[in-house]
UniProtKB/TrEMBL annotation:
Residues 418-445 form a coiled coil. InterPro entries: TAP42/TAP46-like_sf, TAP46-like. It holds the Pfam family TAP42. This is TAP42-like protein. One of its GO terms (biological process) is regulation of dephosphorylation. It comes from Cafeteria roenbergensis. Keywords: Coiled coil. One of its GO terms (molecular function) is protein phosphatase 2A binding. Transmembrane segments: none annotated. It comes from the Eukaryota. GO terms for cellular component: cytosol.
Amino acid sequence: MAAPIAAAGAASAAADAAGSFADDHEDPRLAMDNAVQQLECLADGSEAAAEQYKRLVALARGCRARGDWSGVDSLGELSPAELRLASVDFHAARAAEKALALGPDDRAGERGADPSAARARAVVVASAHLVDFLRLAARLGALHPPEIAKLCAAAEIAAEVAAGTGEGSAGAGAPGRESRVARATAAALDAAAAAASGCRPVALRLAEHLDSGGDTGDGDVAWGAEGARLSAASDMEAELAAADAADRVEAVRALRSSPEARRAAAITRHRRDRGLERRLALLRAQERRAEALASLGEDGVAGRGSDAVAGEGVVGDAARRERAVIELLLHTRQAVDSVVAMAEEGQMLGRMLARATGGPGGAGSDERVRRLTGEDERRGGPGLSVVHFGADHSTRQEHIKATVFGDPRGRATIPLEVFAAQEQAEAEERARRQAEGEARQVMRADQLAEAGLEDDMEKVDLATRADREWDAWKDAHPRGMGVTKRV
């Protein structure tokens, strides 16, 4: 598995060296000095680390030589991830120590030696050890960090170009390439220093427990207890792991009975899940961006080289792996939460059903309820009930009984003969008003012609007068005079 990871990481590192670290006029020797300074930061405390991690490295080398990694089980409950952290820390310190030993010492011991060549050899050795401990970390850990492939490839490329620079071969004639690779090496070593500083406290605690146990087997017990404590997934599990075996039951009961402890654990789980969801959204966005860049590379769009697209593809592969792990964690926790919620809901539904049917746990099983029921039976009936009276001194029950079965239609208030006479009178009045209105209406000339009343001079005069009045009004009010908005 290490070969595909290294090949993929080489493409990623080449893309970073070509795109992220642009060409400039920086002296390659200054870049090499920066790399050596990074090695000096890693070398701090390396002798003490070598003594503390001696047994761990012996075990790791034996497993690597045999090709059998089942020997890590002899460390008790120590997880592969914690073993990987300790091994990475040790090899980082050893790589820095070797590089410093070959850098300044060889430069001072060789007469007439080129300082840049000495620095190049230092980078070669440091890169080789960096590749060694990164590959070992990938083998020892059940899950390796996504940065392993990138750092490993950067170290390999830095070693290759630094070797060419020190020997004065073709690499010496490419200062731009040397500058880029030297910067990539410095960035890789800087990331390795950050990783080593982060995992060093964990490895120190594990090494102290191993050394305190000696060869009698007690070290495995102490190591396992420390590993269990460090691998606690939540505050509640960490507190339980820290408690003694005799007090485990009491600690569990206290945590379950304490509302504050349950609330704190729930808040911790909520924050953890929200953080994972935000990280998952970021990884999905990066994956979509990587796919888009890959499609751009296939189409040959200008401005994006094939190396840069290959680098984005590698990052996308690592992001997809991390995304799958986070999705599995989220789905697992959601399933567990759902199981717990369904169990609690089942208990509540059971209590509600028992209360409704009077079974176990319901109202019928309550001694107080049975006592009250017996008293009612001795009295000869139920107890008092509340009766509400309305404004007309009638109860609500009486009102409902009186109106619920009534006729929904409205009842007649007058005889049918009187109602018919009223309707006839209203109809005659409407007809009279309509006839009067038609008589007062003035017909126009065209209407008179259509009706055949051209000979009725009175109506013709009225129509002529109405037409003239209408023409006069139109002359006094031209079309559009009331429009105040002019476009």
